[in-house]
Amino acid sequence: MARILITSGPTRQYIDPVRYLSNASSGQMGRCLAEAALERGHDVVVVSGPVQLEYPKSCEVIPVVSTDDMLSVCQEIFPNCDGLIGAAAPCDYQPVEVADHKIPKTGDTLVIKLVETPDVVAKLGSGKKPGQWTVGFALETDDARFRAITKLERKSCDLVVLNGVAAIDSSDNHVEIIAPGGQVLQIVQGSKPLVASSILHLIQERLMQESDQV
Ligand code: C5P
Question: Which residues contact 25 (CB under 8 A, 6 or more apart)?
């Protein structure tokens, strides 16, 4: 049995007390991965941004709001986990300044200066202990496979799951599961539970120590 950390859903970066930047991630892929891991007898911790869905009762769920929150919770939990599946779509930018009051409309253009948020998968990947593994996702529109492989390397992932924009808020997905070096191990098309099951199967086969396999 392995202990698996799964990041899921979007994060929010507030601009003022009522407005925020985010994305359309529903958390469905994260929930399906949690279910697939639990079905295989693993222990699952989900760190999730704000979503409308419920995660399985038998996993521990830690709700977070911002990308910084997601990173700090994951940094606490990951040292006691065997692996990470980064299925979240953390917001990549945050405002340089967050207004403490609702920004009033003036009829003029509003310019907001943004800086990048930290990359959760990359930070955890760079601090991996021997035996720990990380799996990232890549959602790409152009040069998809090349960009996914570049992300796998930059984020020190052991596998990357490439999907397209059709995956967002959909019950189906079409993915390529890619290994370091760029080898496409499997192409899966179908429901998110089916895709999640294939991902878990490959993780068990390629990344888990024999003692963690169920
Ligand atoms: O946003 P990007 O396409 O680079 O995301 C690819 C992978 O990196 C996903 O696994 C996602 O969960 C992760 N990621 C992250 N923190 C970010 C941005 C992305 O963990 N700030």
Answer: 9, 10, 49, 51, 88, 89, 168, 169
Q: Whole-model pTM above 0.85?
A: yes
Q: What is the CATH number of the domain that holds 8?
A: 3.40.50.10300
Count of domains forming the chain: 1
- Is residue 23 flagged as an active site residue? yes
Q: Is the CB of 27 under 6 A from ligand 1?
A: no
CA–centroid distance, 75 to ligand 1, in Å, is 15
Please work out whether the CB of residue 55 comes within 6 Å of at least one atom of ligand 1: no
- The residue to mutate among 92, 159, 177, having the most atoms of ligand 1 within 8 angstroms of its beta carbon, is 92
Question: Can you tell me the distance from the alpha carbon of 214 to that of 38, in angstroms, rounded to the nearest whole number?
Answer: 11
Q: What percent of the chain is helix, strand and coil (3-state, nearest 5)?
A: 30, 30, 40
Residue 60: which domain range?
3-212
What are the pLDDT digits (tens) for 44-75?
999 999 999 999 999 999 999 999 999 999 99
